[in-house]
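To illustrate the input format used throughout this study, we show a single complete record. The first block contains the structure-token representation of the backbone; no residue identities are included at this stage. The design step must infer an amino acid for every position from geometry alone.
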């Protein structure tokens, strides 16, 4: 099988130290902030010249926690409850011949000169902290936006849960992280096959662990504690 080399040009720094809780698509939680930091060989301010004029960018990246030698022609999409198989190329599953992901994120600002070289500040990313990035491209509205597109078996976003986040727990998070945390919880972080209303789930978010319970359409935060 023919292969081609890919260079890791950057890595993202986000509030997700593990996969659990990451939104299933980019742009679903705009309050999520992240930084794209280039690898040493690519820390040239010239490489990002002109990027500040674009509101959104494409990130091409690796599902670094899903790399495997073999592949399956079918997968079980969470959108279908994890019980129905669909063709891998009809899904965005991480388990594919090449573990490559594609995300459209909002570009908030470009810092061309930092001790780490150019840094891109983005919003709405669905990437785990440290995810390798292979390429960055500007989002072009005239070519990338297709209002007439159809969504197959995933025609629209999943329903949002009602989040009950008691002040005693919410106040433990920095003010600039609260909206993002609530937005992530509203997306229902649970795996599609886990729907036990008595179970307490734990989600790592930045420096905290958020524990919650879901009953029906309501998610209730039961504890927030700083990771030690």
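Output of the design step:
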């Amino acid at each position: 099988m023919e292969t081609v080399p890919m260079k890791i040009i950057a890595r993202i720094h986000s509030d997700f130290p593990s996969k659990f809780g990451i939104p299933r698509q980019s742009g679903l939680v705009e309050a999520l902030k992240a930084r794209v930091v280039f690898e040493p060989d690519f820390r040239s301010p010239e490489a990002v010249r002109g990027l500040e004029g674009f509101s959104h960018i494409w990130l091409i990246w690796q599902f670094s926690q899903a790399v495997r030698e073999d592949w399956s022609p079918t997968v079980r999409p969470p959108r279908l409850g994890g019980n129905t198989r669909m063709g891998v190329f009809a899904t965005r599953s991480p388990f594919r011949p090449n573990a490559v992901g594609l995300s459209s994120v909002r570009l908030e600002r470009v810092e061309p000169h930092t001790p780490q070289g150019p840094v891109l500040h983005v919003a709405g990313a669905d990437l785990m902290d440290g995810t390798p990035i292979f390429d960055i491209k500007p989002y072009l509205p005239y070519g990338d936006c297709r209002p007439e597109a159809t969504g197959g078996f995933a025609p629209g976003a999943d329903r949002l849960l009602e989040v009950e986040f008691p002040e005693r727990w919410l106040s433990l998070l920095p003010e600039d992280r609260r909206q993002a945390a609530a937005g992530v919880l509203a997306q229902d972080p649970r795996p599609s096959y886990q729907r036990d209303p008595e179970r307490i789930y734990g989600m790592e978010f930045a420096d905290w662990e958020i524990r919650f319970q879901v009953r029906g359409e309501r998610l209730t935060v039961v504890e927030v504690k700083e990771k030690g």
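Structural context for interpreting the output: The helical segments are 141-144, 167-170, 175-186. The radius of gyration is 19 Å.
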